[in-house]
Amino acid sequence: MSPFLIILNLLIGVFAFGLFATDIFVNAGQVVTGHLTPYFLTVCKPNYTSADCPAHQQFINNGNVCTGDLEVIEKARRSFPSKHAALSIYSALYATVSMTHVEFWL
């Protein structure tokens, strides 16, 4: 096997490992610290009469008042940190670091 293919396999392997590790940590961060999306009230479709909250506040902290699709509501709750932004930043940093150190591999 040529040295170029060995280096290419190494670079792709390290990139894939880091990409999956970033994905796992961002998923964990979304589950633990997820903030509501701006369209959460539209997705939730809350029943304000059973929420026991004043109409001027409209803050939903009880999950039982949502009448929308449960799967869409769960995705709307887990919007931050953004997985797309995290994977983009990882890819950009990896490309920058690997291209600046490519002479080390050759």
From TrEMBL:
Cross-referenced Gene3D superfamilies: Phosphatidic acid phosphatase type 2/haloperoxidase
Keywords (A to Z) from UniProt: Cell membrane, Cell projection, Glycoprotein, Membrane, Signal, Transmembrane, Transmembrane helix
Main location: membrane
GO molecular function, one term: phosphatidate phosphatase activity
Localization of this protein: Cell membrane; Cell projection, Neuron projection
Signal sequence region: 1-16
SUPFAM superfamilies the record matches: Acid phosphatase/Vanadium-dependent haloperoxidase
Domain Phosphatidic acid phosphatase type 2/haloperoxidase: 15-97
InterPro entries on file: PAP-like (IPR043216), PAP2/HPO (IPR000326), PAP2/HPO_sf (IPR036938)
Topological type in the membrane: Multi-pass membrane protein
Pfam families recorded: PAP2 (PF01569)
Record GO biological process: phospholipid dephosphorylation; phospholipid metabolic process; signal transduction
GO cellular component, one term: plasma membrane
Role, per record: May play a role in neurite outgrowth and neurogenesis.
Family according to the record: Belongs to the PA-phosphatase related phosphoesterase family.
Protein name: Phospholipid phosphatase-related protein type 1
